[in-house]
TrEMBL record:
Belongs to the short-chain dehydrogenases/reductases (SDR) family. This is Hydroxysteroid dehydrogenase-like protein 2. It comes from Crotophaga sulcirostris. The lineage of its organism: Eukaryota, Metazoa, Chordata, Craniata, Vertebrata. Residues 314-403 form the SCP2 domain. Residues 272-288 have a biased composition (Basic and acidic residues). Keywords: Mitochondrion, NADP, Oxidoreductase, Peroxisome. One of its GO terms (cellular component) is mitochondrion. It holds the Pfam family SCP2.
């Protein structure tokens, strides 16, 4: 898809953290084609031993693409470096119109495997760095005609599955998302503040380091995020407080062919969750993928069933059921899933329920799908030993009633 013939970002000044490579650089190059000014606020001044690109090589590419570049050595952990770069940007280009908070640190490790040094790095770069860079740019953004802040962070989903494998990392990325929530409201009408996250893994050099060889076949190019970012940044400042998934936005904008973004066209973009234990993402920054994109497409039968259940939730079901059901499934897509029909609004999904389960049901995932699509009656499954139930039997019977109402939807 091509942006309209007139160049929407011509003359705009973008301050992009972590723009020496990966996603940050892709967004910079897309804007540079319009003739934008790009402040490359990144810490790589000397070549990195394993990752290509410095702020100076990125500057050369931006100039070649038609933009103006200002490389600034910025480690977002150092407030003074942020302040100096912002002052230099305003002096060079006369102001700042757009801030992209892309710099990020990652460690996809469990609580006991994450060094304190790594915890500090992720909190300092992802949360504090994003907050301070936004704070420093805001006085200048408020003077712009169409100011935007864009954070590369995920939609906030409090399902424990996004936390259990890398708690510190998820907390730090959600910290960036909370900056969007708060600042979008605080500066509503003055500055647009949004978040962007990929639906699939994105291929960058850092991704190769994290994922090992062969990983790129399941990834998309950074172009998809650059195109989605461009769509957001050219919208009016009234477009604010949104958590955007790249593919969903581009579909709305009329993009039909997503194979152009694939590293290996036709290869499955779906991510096996166990493969990279949830979200992957890169060090200095780039490769953002999070299974919080939870969108491994096409969804497996069990996941699809839960998606439909989640969609069918109603206050009525919650009021009349008042129960929490946990499913221990064996076989393909085994694991723990839940339906919460007790908490306001109700919820369903992968992982343990948010509150203690009243009923625990164990069965194979194949029988589970049959049961939920009306091909296997719960009573029959129970009598024949395919379904084991622990806990409140009366509630288990209530669930059967709900199933008969749901079957029309499944």
């Amino acid at each position: 898809f091509s942006p309209s013939t007139f160049r929407k970002l011509a003359g705009c000044t973008l301050f992009i953290t972590g723009a020496s490579r990966g996603i940050g650089k892709a967004i910079a190059l897309k804007a540079a084609k319009d003739g934008a000014n790009i402040v490359i606020a990144a810490k790589t001044a000397e070549p990195h031993p394993t990752l290509p690109g410095t702020i100076y090589t990125a500057a050369a590419e931006i100039e070649a693409a038609g933009g103006k570049a200002l490389p600034c050595v910025v480690n977002v952990r150092e407030e003074q470096q942020i302040i100096s770069a912002v002052e230099k940007a305003v002096k060079t280009f006369g102001g700042i119109d757009i801030l992209v908070n892309n710099a990020s640190a990652i460690s996809l490790t469990g609580t006991l495997e994450t060094d304190t040094k790594k915890v500090n790095l992720m909190m300092d770069v992802n949360v504090r760095g994003t907050y301070l860079t936004s704070k420093t740019c805001l006085p200048h953004l408020r003077k712009s005609r169409n100011p935007h802040i864009l954070n590369l962070s995920p939609p906030m989903n409090l399902n424990p599955m996004w936390f259990k494998n890398h708690c510190a990392y998820t907390i730090s990325k959600y910290g960036m998302s909370m900056c969007v929530l708060g600042m979008a409201e605080e500066f509503r009408g003055e500055v647009a503040v949004n978040a962007l996250w990929p639906k699939t893994a994105i291929h960058t050099a850092a991704m190769d380091m994290l994922g090992g060889s062969g990983i790129e076949k399941q990834c998309r190019k950074t172009d998809i995020l650059a195109d989605a970012a461009y769509c957001i940044l050219t919208k009016p400042k009234s477009f604010t407080g949104n958590f955007i998934i790249d593919e969903d936005l581009l579909r709305e904008e009329g993009v039909k062919d997503f194979d152009v973004y694939a590293i290996a066209p036709g290869a499955s973009q779906a991510f096996k969750e166990e493969k990279l234990s949830g979200s992957q993402h890169e060090g200095p920054h780039g490769a953002k993928a999070d299974t919080a994109s939870a969108a491994a497409q096409p969804l497996s039968p069990v996941a699809e069933t839960f998606r439909v259940i989640q969609g069918a939730m109603s206050e009525e079901y919650v009021r009349t059921t008042q129960g929490v059901f946990q499913f221990e499934l064996s076989g393909d897509e085994g694991g723990t899933w839940y339906i919460d029909l007790k908490t306001k609004g109700g919820s369903a999904g992968f992982g343990k329920p948010p509150v203690m389960a009243d009923v625990v049901m164990s069965m194979s995932s194949a029988d589970f799908v049959k049961m939920f699509t009306g091909k296997l009656k719960p009573t029959l499954a129970f009598m024949s030993g395919k379904l084991r139930i622990k806990g409140n039997m009366a509630l288990a019977i209530k669930l059967e009633k709900m199933l008969t109402q749901l079957n029309s939807k499944l």
